[in-house]
TrEMBL record:
Domain annotation HTH tetR-type: ranges: 6-66
PROSITE patterns referenced in this protein's UniProt entry, alphabetically: HTH_TETR_1, HTH_TETR_2
Keywords linked to the UniProt accession: DNA-binding, Membrane, Transmembrane, Transmembrane helix
GO molecular function per UniProt: DNA-binding transcription factor activity; transcription cis-regulatory region binding
The protein, known as: AcrR family transcriptional regulator
Lineage, top ranks: Bacteria, Pseudomonadati, Pseudomonadota, Alphaproteobacteria, Sphingomonadales
Organism, as annotated: Sphingobium boeckii
Residue intervals passing through the bilayer: 54-71
DNA-binding region (UniProt annotation): 29-48
Amino acid sequence: MRVKTESKRQDILDAAAAEFSLRGFHETTLAHVAERMSSSKATIYNYFRSKDELLGAVLAAAAVPATAALLKTWDAALPLAARLNAFAEGYLRMQTGAAAVALQRLLITKGAKSRAILGPFEDDPDTHALPQLVLLFRDEQEKGVLVAGDCLEMARNLCALLHGDLPLRLMFGGMDQATEAQVLESAHAAVRMFIAAYGEGADRA
């Protein structure tokens, strides 16, 4: 029985992400992934049952850690709007990058047809809702900065506001790339709408 290690699994995910972004889902084979990591298809099958399952794992792995890293810079001493703006700017820079756009296109075109791809997201509904952001929102509610309500819904709505402009236009060919000025404008607009809906007192301004 082959021994599984987290480092080898991560090597597979990194190689697969690079190949999917370069070739697209349909043109990428597990042989390509194995070649990139100087390994074998048998090694990949020891961790993932299919190419669909591998793509689902790549997408799930890309979503949470990168967002968690952004939230580590959350400065409680700053006004809520400033904190959200900093998060939104970093999040949109990440989501409008070429690799992220390519992977999201794969999820849209292939994911609806494969439970193996959607599995990591369906099994953990908080994956999209950013668990760390949910916890931070609860702290803001306790301080009276955010209105009472479902923090999971708030996190989802903030993500929807951020995804609803530049990432969608990039995914569907409405633009080739986003400029820094466009990222800032879109991020700040999303934060303004979020605070208008959920902010208390001065934070609505």
